[in-house]
């Protein structure tokens, strides 16, 4: 077994990682941020024109009933237009910023939103709060925020430019010093030189600080949009709860399947040997007086039967929890597993020494690895295999995954088929909330990656949150032997 030091995986999902580059990086992102601010200013003008047209049409509607009908039609249309505008704004922010916004679930949340009649479904948008938030953002929040950022950006560049222009005009004589009394008092040359110096200093300061100012504006836009245009946390929790319920059902099903398989294994193995043992002992008892030699032979056969039954029971007991796993942990148990493998198998441990794996995760990881190694020996026609055990950050950025990567150089063609080993692994993983990835082209190699979520608060068991930094996802190294069975 080889212990390797691994690097920490970044979290690209919830918050952007700190990237190297500092000031230079801000300049590299400046063109996109300028483009975002400039287009925002254009959109403010478009929205202002649309609001002017709306109020003109409302006033021209005439009587109160006509005004109300016109307002209802415009508001309903505005809800759909606001959704499109908000979606476009999310796309723009995704282009300008590396801070993602939680997606919105637009599934109708009312019974009439799921009606068979398209008109009823269309009108149901008035009951969806996301539409109203998008409308509020498009009509009020975005124009105010975008107008403020556009004004500040233009003013920050225009004021220093104005000082420079006045200085140039005075020094060149295009603007006479007598044009303004306060200029005449100071002197045209002195005032122009001072104005030029102040303008150059201000303009240089603005240019130097512009990347940070525009980045701050984009971050402000993103924060407001994330609050109003992003999905609700409650919606995400409902999805997670539904997933947990599915996992719970799958776990119960997997447990029942495991118990039925254990019952079948005991019935077909040790039980038959014990029945034979009982029959041999009964025959030896009857022959002990009349034929001692025969009785002695039967007793010896019974002893061998009991020894073989004990070995089978020991093998079956590993399906509950091997003593080595309980005493020394997952790595030691996997080392013992690869030592007993039918084909030459190696193990690479890339789990940082400070990471504590929960016992239930260790147990399931061991049984999954045992199933995969056993299937390689039975079906893969492989000459060698290897197991890599490692940790990495979960795709949602919360918590840590324990990964098992099993490879072999067999014939390939492995897949999920009912009654085979990989189907059982998949069923177990659903109960654990994990997932399975299989790469098994014809002719091999086969690479099976198993990912099992661990507790997100491992820091409580190892000292501090910093200690729990998971290892980065490793690029699949050329396996010494891929994991291949076509008949897993």
UniProtKB/TrEMBL annotation:
Start and end residues of each stretch annotated as Disordered: 460-488
Record's keyword annotation contains Kinase: yes
Recorded GO CC terms: membrane
GO molecular function: ATP binding; phosphorelay sensor kinase activity; protein dimerization activity
Pfam families assigned: HisKA_3
Entry's EC annotation: 2.7.13.3
Signal transduction histidine kinase subgroup 3 dimerisation and phosphoacceptor domain location: 260-323
Annotated Low complexity bias: 465-488
Swiss-Prot/TrEMBL keywords: ATP-binding, Kinase, Membrane, Nucleotide-binding, Phosphoprotein, Transferase, Transmembrane, Transmembrane helix, Two-component regulatory system
Enzyme class, UniProt record, top EC level: transferase
Reaction catalyzed: ATP + protein L-histidine = ADP + protein N-phospho-L-histidine
This protein's name: histidine kinase
Organism: Frigoribacterium faeni
């Amino acid at each position: 077994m080889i212990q390797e030091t691994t690097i920490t995986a970044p979290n690209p999902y919830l918050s952007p990682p700190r990237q190297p580059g500092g000031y230079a990086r801000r300049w590299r992102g400046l063109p996109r941020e300028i483009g975002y601010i400039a287009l925002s200013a254009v959109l403010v003008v478009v929205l202002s024109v649309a609001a002017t047209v709306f109020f003109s049409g409302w006033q021209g509607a005439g009587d109160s009933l006509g005004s109300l009908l016109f307002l209802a039609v415009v508001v309903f249309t505005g809800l759909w237009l606001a959704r499109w505008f908000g979606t476009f704004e999310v796309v723009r922010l995704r282009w300008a910023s590396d801070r993602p916004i939680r997606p919105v679930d637009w599934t109708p949340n009312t019974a009439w939103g799921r009606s068979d009649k398209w008109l009823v479904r269309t009108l149901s948008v008035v009951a969806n709060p996301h539409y109203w938030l998008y409308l509020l953002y498009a009509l009020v929040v975005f124009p105010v925020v975008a107008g403020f950022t556009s004004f500040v950006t233009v003013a920050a560049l225009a004021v220093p430019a104005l000082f420079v222009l006045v200085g140039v005009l005075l020094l060149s004589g295009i603007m006479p010093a007598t044009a303004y009394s306060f200029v005449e008092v100071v002197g045209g040359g002195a005032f122009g030189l001072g104005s030029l110096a102040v303008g150059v200093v201000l303009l240089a300061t603005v240019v130097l600080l512009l990347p940070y100012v525009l980045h701050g504006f984009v971050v402000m836009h993103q924060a407001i949009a994330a609050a109003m245009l992003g999905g609700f946390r409650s919606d995400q929790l409902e999805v997670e709860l539904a997933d947990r319920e599915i996992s719970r059902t799958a776990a119960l099903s997997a447990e029942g399947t495991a118990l039925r398989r254990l019952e079948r294994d005991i019935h077909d193995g040790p039980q038959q040997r014990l029945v034979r043992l009982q029959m041999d002992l009964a025959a030896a008892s009857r022959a002990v007086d009349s034929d001692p030699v025969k009785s002695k032979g039967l007793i010896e056969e019974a002893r061998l039967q009991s020894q073989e039954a004990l070995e089978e029971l020991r093998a079956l007991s590993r399906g509950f929890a091997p003593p080595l796993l309980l005493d020394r942990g997952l790595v030691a148990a996997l080392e013992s597993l690869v030592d007993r493998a039918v084909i030459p198998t190696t193990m690479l441990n890339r789990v940082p020494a400070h990471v504590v794996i929960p016992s239930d995760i260790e147990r399931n990881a061991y049984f999954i690895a045992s199933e995969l190694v056993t299937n390689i020996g039975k079906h893969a026609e492989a000459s060698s295999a290897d197991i890599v055990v490692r940790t990495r950050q979960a795709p949602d950025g919360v918590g840590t995954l324990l990964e098992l990567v099993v490879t072999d150089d067999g014939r390939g063609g492995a897949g999920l088929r009912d009654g085979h080993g990989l189907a059982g692994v998949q069923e177990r993983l659903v109960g654990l909330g994990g997932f399975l990835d299989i790469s098994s082209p014809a002719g091999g190699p086969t690479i099976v990656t198993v990912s099992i979520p661990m507790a997100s608060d491992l820091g409580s068991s190892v000292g501090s949150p910093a200690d729990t930094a998971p290892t980065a996802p490793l690029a699949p190294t050329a396996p010494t032997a891929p994991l291949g069975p076509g008949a897993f």
